[in-house]
Amino acid sequence: MEKNKDVVMTVEGLTKVFKSGIINPEYTVAAKDVSFDIKRGEIISLIGESGSGKTTVGKLILKLIKISEGKIKYKGKDITEINNKAEVKKYYRRVQGIFQDPFATFNPLYRVDRIFDMIFDSFDLNYKNKSQAIKEALDDVNLNPDRTLGKFPHQLSGGQLQRLLIARALLMDVDILVADELISMLDASTRIGVLNLLVESCKKHGMAVVFITHDLNLGYYVSDKSLIMYKGRLVERGNTKKIYENPIHPYTKMLFKAVPEIGERWDQDVEFIPEQVINDVNEFYNNNEGKGFVEIEEDHSVLFSDKEYK
Ligand SMILES: Nc1ncnc2c1ncn2[C@@H]1O[C@H](COP(=O)(O)OP(=O)(O)OP(=O)(O)O)[C@@H](O)[C@H]1O
Ligand SMILES: [Mg+2]
Questions:
Q1: Which terminus of the chain has a lower count of CB atoms within 10 Å, N or C?
Q2: Does the C-beta of 213 come closer than 6 Å to ligand 1?
């Protein structure tokens, strides 16, 4: 996989087991044997129900938690070997995350300009004219500098703050942006706007995005590649169109059957994994015993059996 020069990151057999409690420790396998790669400028949707392990994968990529098993390589280098301060800083210069609640990223006491000052202070950014560069990045995300810079976070909307964070990532020429539930807190109209911006900017700057979402809301419409997670396992992986047109895993089938039309609201109250799906998955694994993860066509792989599925 690494021979492809467009590949910026490879995730191989990634596993995370959380241990909680001391006397009677409980172990949660949050991610198990997850493998995929990330190419330059690629938009990837990481989709799955609540608790399926999506944020865990995002955090592992961002080095926020320790890998239990498997490897993540960034430009060929094992990220667990990136340890000293200078190297870690260099890593975060190119691999960044934006989380669900943009307000948490901003210090309420400072004007929002500070997020730009900070990157210019900490990193050696190659721009002749700093304020011109900021203006252009804001332009890319459809923000009016006069109406945003100089404001305090509480004076801006969640969508505007998220766009500021995208502008920051663009200025830094980030290779990989992990966007965890980026749009879920926005209303439907802003949502489409932010999403489109993200896609356009990515294509323009060659920035890859790992777009984490649990409700499929529009995310997969824009992604080149989809990763479907179910109970910590990647159950289907590949070209979004191929998966959408020919879903094989029972969980994926259920997801796509339930996808709302563009602009339509997802009903959050619907129970996400009906009993039927759990049974279907069981039957599917039993019928395909021993097959494991198989590439069924170019750019489309499916988990046919899982020994440990309960
Ligand atoms: N620090 C932790 N300690 C123990 N268990 C954890 C920890 N973080 C996550 N988990 C468990 O790991 C599993 C996966 O969690 P994760 O946050 O990755 O899910 P998710 O797919 O992002 O869900 P959501 O859509 O609700 O955000 C869950 O069962 C969760 O309870
Ligand atoms: Mg999550």
A1: C
A2: no
* d(CA 58, ligand 2 centre) in Å: 9
Determine the atom of ligand 1 nearest the C-alpha atom of 16.
12
Q: How much distance in Å is there from the Cα of 289 to the middle of ligand 1? A: 28
> Domains in the chain and their CATH numbers?
7-303 (3.40.50.300)
Burial (CB count within 10 angstroms: exposed 0-12, middle 13-18, buried 19+), residue 276: exposed
Residues 205-248 pLDDT 10s: 899 999 998 767 666 678 899 999 999 999 999 999 999 889 99
> Using CA atoms, how far apart are residues 125 and 169, in angstroms rounded to an integer?
12
Helix (H) or strand (E) holding 36: strand 26-39
Q: Is the pLDDT confidence value at 267 over 70?
A: no
Distance 205 CA to ligand 1 centre (A): 32
